[in-house]
Amino acid sequence: MNPSAMNLREAARRNWRVAFVVWFVAVTVATHWPQMAIDTGEHKAPDKLLHFACFGIMAFSLWSSG
User: Fold this and answer.
1) Buried b (16+ CB within 10 A) or exposed e, 19-29
2) Between helices 3-32 and 47-64, what is the axis angle to 10°?
């Protein structure tokens, strides 16, 4: 593998690491914010679906970071 391809791969991994840290902080803050309500009127928020999406994105970014 040529050096430029290795540099691109390392840059991509660094970007995924940054994305993982940013997402981790955002999810941590959102889940620990006191009295945060995401229900909209008469419809309940799909709690399990939101957890699946948030932690799925977190797992994907961690996996992509190498």
Assistant:
1) bbeebeeeeee
2) 150
**Residues 9 and 47: beta-carbon distance below 8 Å:** no
CA angle (23 as vertex; 9, 25 as ends), nearest 5? 125
Question: Each residue of 42-62: pLDDT tens digit?
Answer: 767 677 888 899 899 999 999
Greatest alpha-carbon pair distance for the chain in Å reads 58
Beta bridge partners of 43: 40
Write the pLDDT tens digit of every residue in 4-30. Answer: 877 888 999 999 999 999 999 998 888
5 CB-near residues (< 8 Å, 6+ apart): none
